[in-house]
Design brief:
Strand order of the largest sheet: 8-1-10-18-17-16-15-14-13-11-12
CATH topology of the largest domain: UDP-N-acetylmuramoyl-L-alanine:D-glutamate ligase
Number of domains: 2
Pfam family, one: Carb_kinase
CATH class of the largest domain: Alpha Beta
Cofactor: K(+); Mg(2+)
Subunit structure: Homotetramer.
Largest sheet: 11 strands, mixed
EC number: 4.2.1.136, 5.1.99.6
Family: Belongs to the NnrE/AIBP family.
Bound molecules: ligand NAX, potassium ion
Strand content: 15-25%
Shape: elongated
Structural class: alpha/beta
CATH architecture of the largest domain: 3-Layer(aba) Sandwich
Distance between the termini: 20 Å
Number of helices: 18
Helix content: 40-55%
Length: about 475
């Protein structure tokens, strides 16, 4: 699990730590860690440290201070270090340390272009105190660094990205590597900023322990969390232990959604799937998935809504499912028929447009800050919410933190993927998992199944790869010492 925080949560943690360490200690620890990573990178690129050249791009805040103190450490070891003043006045003590160690400082050229020789460029322009975007000529510089192909290490985060939302609204740097301090920042986990961070390395700076379940914190699943959290059936598991899914998806207008949801549920390992939807999808399901049953009976979780279209009895179907007291996944068109209050055991799976409609907002409002949007949806409905998209986020009304699923390749974002995902999540609910966990594991297993395939697959083919993916996860869980 990767734990990340928004800027406010980080600042609070730093403030509490500095009470015991004093003001300077954290920056010195950050600079020492940064210098070690930079030295390793220089050795990796040049084979040695002495005689390599580092250009520090420094802004007016502590982010530039980190870069300058790290630069001073490198200069003391024979690296030619040049600081380029990019915005305002650089951190005074950091600059003094660099100059004392033999480094030099220059102004940013008007055309924003760096001259060589440069072994490595370090982005210390803005950190968590940065407003998103970059003013000229720094914006031009960011573009030129990318165009000229200079290797770039970002201090804490690539300057220009929004540290809290992951948005990249204007100019921003694009790093090969990002060195962060204490805890990851939200932008390291959230697209599109995540794609600009490169490899993220966290340096320990001795921050106090924090309550990471509070609002402002994110927890991102990694492959091993998925392997350890998946509900593998044991030798004694019958169909009820594995879970029976009652599925009402698709319509005569959109029958394919019913097939895809059912395929997702079956291949995620449901003990049994009852298809309780319209006739046309039922006919297709009968032909393709002979192990599905079509009579009503005992179920342990519902799946409603995918491919319903304009269903006149949608509200009644949702209300009837609510009356059973069982957990449910509500997807797509089903989201238009929600009552005011839902239990946290219900998992809503909107994409950005559907979430916007749910909150009477514009889609852009969701996209500019998905974290805010997913939390607002959980608070408004009382349900657990999985927001689908480039980064898949899960918020629950029962806790403040937000979960982030394992990221998958971009090609999984296509029509039908969401239907399959609904089926997977319903299977996990039926197996007894809490809704937040079902949402995180469901989105993650789909991403991992996609990632382990060399090229794009249509959603139904991806669903058919799930058993193999779960098999690999189970083997990994055993290797980690867990006997499912
Ligand atoms: N607070 C601490 O104890 C620690 C902070 N550290 C570093 O400090 C960073 C945060 O430092 P700061 O709070 O000084 O913030 P920044 O270094 O991000 O810079 C903030 C300054 O930049 C200006 N600014 C922000 N956005 C701008 C924009 N778009 N255009 C022009 N000027 C802009 C602000 O007016 C402010 O003066 C972290 O990211 C991290 O790198 C580390 O040294 C670890 C310890
Ligand atoms: K930076």
């Amino acid at each position: 699990m990767i734990t990340a925080a928004t800027a406010d949560a980080v600042r609070e943690l730093e403030r509490r730590t500095m009470i015991s360490t004093g003001d300077d200690a954290l920056m010195q620890r950050a600079a020492a860690g940064l210098a070690a990573v930079l030295a390793a990178e220089l050795r990796h690129r040049a084979g040695h440290l002495y005689g390599t050249a580092v250009t520090l791009l420094v802004g007016p805040g502590n982010n530039g201070g980190d870069a300058l103190f790290a630069g001073a450490r490198l200069a003391a070891r024979g690296v030619a270090v040049r600081a380029v003043r990019c915005l305002g006045r650089p951190h005074a003590a950091g600059l003094a340390a660099l100059l004392a160690a033999g480094g030099r400082v220059v102004d940013l050229p008007e055309d924003g272009r760096l001259s060589g020789p440069v072994t490595l460029v370090v982005d210390g322009v803005l950190g968590i105190g940065g407003r998103p975007g970059l003013p000229e000529p720094v914006a031009r510089l960011a573009e030129a660094v990318a165009e000229d192909g200079w290797p770039l290490v970002a201090v804490d985060l690539p300057s220009g990205v929004d540290a809290d939302t992951g948005a990249v609204a204007g100019a921003a740097f694009c790093a090969d590597r990002t060195v962060t301090f204490g805890v990851h920042k939200a932008c390291h986990l959230l697209e599109p900023a995540r794609g600009r961070c490169g490899v993220v390395e966290r340096v320990d700076i001795g921050l106090e322990a924090a309550d990471t379940t509070a609002p402002g914190w994110l927890h991102a699943l990694e492959d091993d969390d998925l392997a350890l959290g998946w509900p593998y059936p044991g030798a004694a598991s019958d169909k009820y232990a594995r879970g029976v899914v009652g599925l009402d998806a698709g319509s005569d207008q959109y029958p394919g959604a019913g097939v895809l949801s059912t395929t997702g549920a079956v291949h995620a390992g449901a003990g049994m799937v009852r298809f309780l939807g319209a006739d046309r999808p039922a006919e297709l399901v009968r032909r393709r998935l002979p192990d599905v049953v079509f009579s009503p009976g005992r179920v342990q979780a519902h799946l409603l809504g995918s491919g319903w279209g304009d269903r006149p009895d949608g509200a009644d179907v949702v209300a009837a499912a609510l009356d059973t007291g069982l957990p449910a996944v509500v997807d797509a068109d089903g989201l238009r028929f929600l009552p005011d209050h839902l239990p946290a055991s219900w998992l809503l799976t909107p994409h950005a447009g559907e979430l916007a409609r749910l909150l009477d907002r514009e889609r852009g409002w969701v996209e500019e800050d998905p974290l805010r949007a997913v939390r607002a949806a959980a608070a408004r409905t009382g349900a657990t919410v999985l927001l689908k998209g480039a980064s898949q986020l899960v918020a629950s009304p029962e806790h403040g933190w937000v979960g982030v699923a394992v990221p998958g390749p971009a090609w999984t974002a296509r029509a039908g993927s969401g239907d399959v995902l609904g089926g997977i999540c319903a299977t996990l609910l039926a197996a007894g998992l809490p809704a937040w966990r079902a949402g995180l594991l469901g989105a993650s297993v789909q991403a991992v199944a996609a990632r382990t395939h060399p090229g794009p697959l249509p959603p139904h083919a991806l669903a058919e790869r799930l058993p193999e993916t779960v098999g690999r996860l189970e083997a990994r869980a055993r290797a980690l010492g867990v006997r499912p």
